[in-house]
Every structure is written in structure tokens, then in C-alpha cells.
Design goal:
It is a single chain. The chain is elongated and about 95 Å long. The two termini are 52 Å apart. Helices cover 34% and strands 17% of the residues. It folds into 2 domains: 27-249, Rossmann fold (3-Layer(aba) Sandwich); 332-553, no CATH class. The longest helix is centred in the first third of the chain and has 17 residues, at 93-109. By secondary structure, the chain is α/β, with parallel strands linked by helices. The chain has 19 helices and 22 strands.
Amino acid sequence: MFETDATLFDPDTTKIPVDNGEVFTRRWMVEFILDLVGYTSDRDLGSLVIVEPSCGAGAFLDVIVDRLIESVQDRELDIGGLDLAIRAYDLLEENVALSRKTIMARLEDTGLSPEAAERLAAHWVVQADFLIDSPTVGSADLVVGNPPYVRLENVPTDRMVAYRTKCRTMRGRSDLYVGFIETGLSLLRPGGVLGFICADRWMRNQYGADLRELITGSYCMDTVVTMHDVNAFEHTVSAYPAVVVVRNEPQGTATVIDAGATFGESSAQEAISWKRTSSQPSIDGDSYRGSRLSGWFEGRNLWPGGSPQTMALLTDLETRFPPLEDPETGTRVGIGVATGCDEVYITDQPDIVEADRLLPLLQARDTTSGVVEWSGRHLINPWDEDGLVDLDGYPRLRSYFAENAGKLGRRHIARKRPQTWYRTIDRVHPGLTRTPKLVIPDLKASANPVLDDGRFYPHHNLYYVVSEGWDLEVLGGLLLSKVANLFVGAYCVKMRGGCYRFQAQYLRKIRVPNFRAIDPGIARSLAEAFRERDVDGATELASKAYGIDDLAWL
């Protein structure tokens, strides 16, 4: 056990310090989560084991106990014998005492003696560290709660080491709730269910990669309810919360719900009813939208965000089409050269070094019109196809680099590799200059693919696509369309001003039809739309190539 400030680690909060650190989950939200996981009084709850890993003052326990009592009374069972029905944890003695006191009062109201109520409450609520002292693997039917939201580096060092040792998904600058999800999942019996409300950052950042891989490899992602603007807590916080429901069973359909600021108790009940009983694939309520997905996103890669309809469309496209980068078509995504010192390696003087040490350099500013408008800048290239050139064979290049040795030598890569102090950070492959390619600027509000027919080398603020199979103008039409934007926008973090990051990792998320399967007329029209920079036309044509019937979500 370790002692910690409650404002850094309070077990029934969003873990964002507000006043004394306690930000309690509203009762209607607890009811909503318990409904989602199926802990409802119409079931024989006495036959189940439910675990609450961070009970705090009892926001979840209050509702759990009420539902258990109702279920037991309906079946005329003895609640006093259900020692294993609930297992709740908390680090803080005062929270454990308060939760036990509340439970005892409820049990005594059922006619249980004070002694029996005290004994049962002591069985149900224990002071312990859930990540270290959790129950036996595979011993729970349900795990529910609001796990701590604390940066792992804010935990004392010895405890942090213990957590990382116990929970393999707590990598990098992780948050504690990642370990709570992993540990909670390990407790589930076959068919068991975990339901948490926590920050959703792990779905779309690096430190969540191992947890995403664990879930998609061994569990079923059942439901995600995004609630960034919902008043789910007693205090206002900025924690980007979402409700996640994960089942210990093979992946089947999944439900995604995007809840708006006015989402409340009645909306929650309506959403539950749609999820349980309706055959409609989607719903558009006054304060939320929801869709059923045919499956979930695989592997450790980022999970997309966006409206439920967008995610449903993405799921369908990812099921039916291969990724843009594909060895079968020889299609590859790359990034232009990072020099580490542009003021030395980029020049507009064509005679400053030997002619064969200059490559025409294409920068983002040269592509803004949608066609290449070269500024006349060159890359001073210290590489050939075999590696770094010998400066003794290039006296003007040697002299130029010597004049700039101070600037080049201060770079990290030069200090790390002093024998190759004049190299650019990235290796230059001169053959890329002669290769036709689509170049795509990084920061843009929408995709702006531009065709280089094989004359330029791209700078590091340009990404490029080369292909052996595609007609690049046809592919350019697909990438110009809003379908490509749909993929990138769902996976990337939108920057200030509404710009997307058209980086390689997001471009590789784009799915494309088989180029041989596209109707020749559609292909010709896509190429024309690309040349004309006709986004709407490209989008309409792309939708036909993808078989998308409804363009409303593009």
C-alpha cells in the first residue's frame, strides 16, 4: 500500500483534481452503464460475481446493491449468504468505511441483522490496490466502474514499477486506467463483461497500442459511447470520457454512440432500448446518434473516431477493400527528405556545387494550386545510389560543406555519427526523382494530391505515393475525393484551424478498390476530375467505385 494525495489518485473520480479531487459519477450514468453490461434486476444477480475496482464513496456500489437486493427479493432468496456476489476495492480507508456504512444501511432495511449486514459489507468492500491485489483470473462475471485517471509518472516510483510489471499494456506515458482495463478484462469468465467510463485517449494514441491489441486479439469490443460534452459527473471536468463495454467472447457486431451535451437519463434509456430490441442499424435521437458496426477494427493500430455513421461506413470499407499501400500493386507511401539543416541543403543557386549533386526539390508551397509550380529550389545531395559520396571526388561540394561545417556539425546526427557529418538526416534515393508520384502536403483542411510526372524530389513536408499498378491520375481522383478525407479525418488528430495531418500512418489507413475492378468509364472520369480539381465530382465517382449508396456522411 502506498499513501498518495487524493487530488492525484481518488478512486471514484475522473481523476482530474477539482476542489478535494472527488468528481463523482451521476447516478443516472451508473444506471446506464449497468444496463449496458446487463446487470439488471430481472436477472438472477445473486448467481453472478460483479467487481468494482475503484469504488470511492460508492457511486456504483449504491446502484449495484439496490439492484442485487431487488433481484434477490423477487426470487425470495437469502441475501445474507451472497458473500461472493460483490467485490469492491479502494485504496483509501475513509472511502472503504463510507461504502461499507452505506451498504449496511441498505442491508438492514431488508431485515438483515446489523451483525450479518456488517459481515457482508466487509466481504463486499476491501481496502486494497486493485492492480496488485485483484481477484483470481477468470473469477468475475462483470467488472464495472470509473477507474482512476492519473498519469503513471505521478505514481510513486516503486508502485509505478510494480504496475508496469503486472500490467504489460501500461507502456510509455500511460494512464492508470489502462492497467485497470487490462486487469479487469483478465478477471472475466467466458461471456463476462467489462463496462467502464474513462478517458478515450487510449483508443487514438501511442500508449494505448498494447491495450488495443489485447482487446482485438482476445475480446469483443461491444459498445463505445463517446461522451465528451455530457454532464456525466457531479463536477465539470475535461477528461474526454467515453463508456466502453468489452466482452470475453469472439468479436461480433459492435455499437457506437455519439452523445451530445444534452444527453441525459431519458436519452440513455432510449439508447438502451434501441440497442437491446431494435433491428434498426442506426438511430438519430435528439441528443445522440448511434450505429451498429458489422465488426471492430483489428490490431494495435489507432482506432478511428467520428460519428457513428462514419465509423459504420469505415468498418464496411475496411472489410471490403485493401489498404492503399499494397505489395500486390506495388503501391507505397513515403515521406520526403528531412535534411536537418534546410538553410544549407536547399539552394536556389544552380551552380553552387557540381551539377550532379543537385536535385530539383519540390516543397509544399509548390503544390498549392493543385499542379506543380516549381520555385527553382534544389536539394544539395550528398548521396548516390551506393551511399554517401566521397567528397574528394566533388571539390565544390567539399568546399561548400566545409564553409558550413559549423552549422552541419552542431546537428545531433553529426555528433552521433561524426565520420558522416555532412549527411542529411534521411538518406536520399536519387531514383525517386525520376519516378512518377502523387505528392500530398501534410497540413491541409482536405487532401490535395498533386502529380509529379517524374521530375522532382519531395521535401519532408510532402508525403508521396508511388505505384506500379495504378494509373496515378485515377488514384489521384480517389485521393482527392471526400472518401479519402473520411479515412484520414477519422484516424488523425485534427490540428488548430481544422487542418488534418496527411501523414504516412494516416494515408496508409485509406482503403481503395482494386484498380482492375473499376469501371473504365469511371476511371477515365476520376482522372479528369483529378486534373480539374473537382472534389465533388471525384467524390461522386469514388462513391460508385466503392459502392457507397449514401453520400450524406462524406
